């Protein structure tokens, strides 16, 4: 009787571990959706803020409008259907299941691209750009602009596995994305990111694997170390800055002083945030309070305006986090990276494309972009859009990604 050798068994197990498995977007039960609506209805509201603006945080009127719509009109099934329209897969990397969308272009010579979302986020943020990037001729582009698009859920987010031990920091994710792309058979590819995705593509660029041709970022890490530290300390703008550099400095200083309370909380004590795992309205308010400009854009949607995001866009992202119970597993990414730089220049030496959206946390000056990225192959300021650019302005964003990578084809 033939016995399978231990070596052969080990090889088969490794092959199983590396397998790419089809993933059917989870259909959550009607009972779970009913329970969500019950919890929204049962919210214990505080009194309204004592000011007439948003300086104390997300305003009561905004949250109550959101709650009414979420409980009585919002339809999660539409988001499920949108997700299900794309080919989705799971593969195990370093012991953790990674979920991803893999949308191949009909153009065989398309450039492989991996796009990373941020916080508070999920692959929902990237759904609108998949069509324009994979099928450019249907969206005002050329055949030569086509991409094969891979959109993974970061560890602890959405349908990816939740790390059970420390170690899944942005450097680890950057390495895992290279493993993922190579496992898909891509020997040459590019990477794009904003928010956490911007940190991850910077780190991919710093690691500089030979397969990575270049990166595109819409939140570039460009601040010189001394400038970043001065902004963090609250010091006045250093002398000698150009007009563009002074604006960027002041905007970054505002972010540090007034804008990222959530970053400090999640960076230091993420496990304490039981409230956002237990209350849908607590989660929604926490997610809305990302930055002042994004909050303005989101709040106006609940007042009937339509530029950028819709009410459903906003609630899709919150609801997927609620249903997958990933508020805290996502929050721990801040803890993993605590004390390291988000916005600083990191020493990336591979080709980099930068798109500056006016309502980003800060408008990156060309001068600092050129210093931070010695191989800056593309730099452009666009006319509108903010921090969640792919989600808010998918047409503009897709055009920027095409233009940014054109010279690398």
Summarize the structure in words.
The chain is an alpha/beta fold and 409 residues long. The protein is built from 18 helices and nine strands. The chain has a nine-stranded mixed beta sheet with strand order 1-2-3-5-4-6-7-8-9, sandwiched between helices. α6 packs across α7, α8 packs across α9 (243-259) and α12 (280-288) crosses α14 (311-324).
TL;DR?
It is built from 18 helices and 9 strands. It has 409 residues and is of the alpha/beta class.
Describe the structure using short key phrases.
409 residues, alpha/beta, 9-stranded mixed β-sheet, 9 strands, 12% strand
How do the helices and strands line up, and which of them pair or pack?
Elements (H helix, E strand, L loop, with lengths): L5 H13 L1 E3 L7 H12 L18 H13 L3 H9 L3 E6 L2 E8 L7 E6 L10 H8 L12 E6 L17 H14 L5 E5 L2 H12 L4 E6 L7 H9 L9 H17 L1 H8 L5 H5 L1 H9 L3 H10 L9 H14 L2 H11 L14 E5 L9 H7 L3 E6 L7 H4 L1 H12 L4
Parallel strand pairs: 4-5, 4-6, 6-7, 7-8, 8-9
Antiparallel strand pairs: 1-2, 2-3, 3-5
Helix pairs in contact: 2-3, 5-18, 6-7, 8-9, 10-15, 12-14
Termini separation comes to 55 Å
Strand content: 5-15%
Structural category: alpha/beta
Number of strands: 9
Spatial ordering of strands, largest sheet: 1-2-3-5-4-6-7-8-9
Number of helical elements: 18
Q: Low-confidence segments, ≥5 residues, pLDDT <50?
A: none
What does the radius of gyration come to? 21 Å
Largest sheet geometry: 9 strands, mixed
Dominant shape: globular
Q: Which H/E pattern describes the elements?
A: HEHHHEEEHEHEHEHHHHHHHHEHEHH
Mean pLDDT: 94
Helix content: 40-55%
């Amino acid at each position: 009787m033939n016995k399978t050798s231990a070596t052969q068994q080990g090889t088969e197990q490794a092959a199983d571990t590396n397998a790419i498995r089809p993933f059917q977007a989870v259909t959550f039960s009607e009972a779970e959706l009913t329970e969500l609506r019950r919890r929204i209805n049962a919210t214990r509201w505080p009194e309204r803020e004592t000011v007439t603006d948003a300086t104390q945080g997300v305003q009561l009127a905004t949250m109550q409008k959101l709650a009414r719509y979420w409980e009585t009109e919002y339809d999660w099934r539409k988001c499920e259907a949108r997700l299900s329209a794309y080919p989705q897969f799971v593969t195990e990397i370093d012991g953790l299941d990674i979920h991803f969308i893999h949308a191949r272009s009909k153009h065989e010579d398309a450039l492989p691209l991996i796009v990373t979302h941020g916080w508070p986020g999920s692959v929902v943020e990237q759904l609108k750009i998949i069509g324009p990037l994979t099928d450019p001729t249907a969206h005002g582009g050329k055949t030569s602009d086509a991409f094969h698009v891979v959109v993974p859920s970061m560890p602890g987010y959405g349908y990816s596995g939740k790390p059970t031990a420390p170690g899944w920091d942005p450097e680890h994710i950057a390495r895992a994305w290279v493993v993922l792309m190579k496992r898909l058979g891509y020997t040459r590819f590019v990477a794009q990111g904003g928010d956490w995705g911007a940190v991850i593509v910077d780190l991919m660029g710093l690691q500089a694997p030979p397969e990575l041709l270049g990166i595109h970022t819409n939140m570039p890490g460009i601040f010189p170390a001394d400038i970043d530290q001065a902004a963090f300390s609250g010091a006045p703008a250093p002398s000698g800055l150009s007009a563009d550099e002074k604006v960027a400095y002041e905007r970054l200083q505002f972010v540090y002083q007034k804008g990222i309370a959530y970053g400090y909380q999640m960076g230091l004590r993420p496990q304490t945030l039981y409230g956002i795992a237990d209350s849908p309205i607590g989660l929604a308010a926490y997610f809305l309070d990302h930055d002042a400009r994004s909050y303005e854009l989101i709040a106006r949607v609940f007042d009937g305006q339509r530029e950028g995001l819709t009410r459903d866009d906003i609630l899709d992202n919150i609801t997927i986090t609620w249903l997958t119970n990933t508020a805290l597993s996502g929050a721990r990414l801040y803890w993993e990276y605590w004390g390291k730089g988000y916005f600083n220049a990191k020493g990336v030496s591979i080709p980099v494309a930068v798109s500056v959206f006016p309502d980003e946390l800060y408008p990156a000056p060309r001068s600092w972009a050129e210093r931070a990225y010695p191989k800056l192959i593309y730099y452009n300021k666009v006319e509108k859009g903010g921090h969640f650019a792919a989600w808010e302005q998918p047409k503009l964003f897709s055009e920027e990604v095409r233009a940014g990578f054109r010279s690398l084809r």
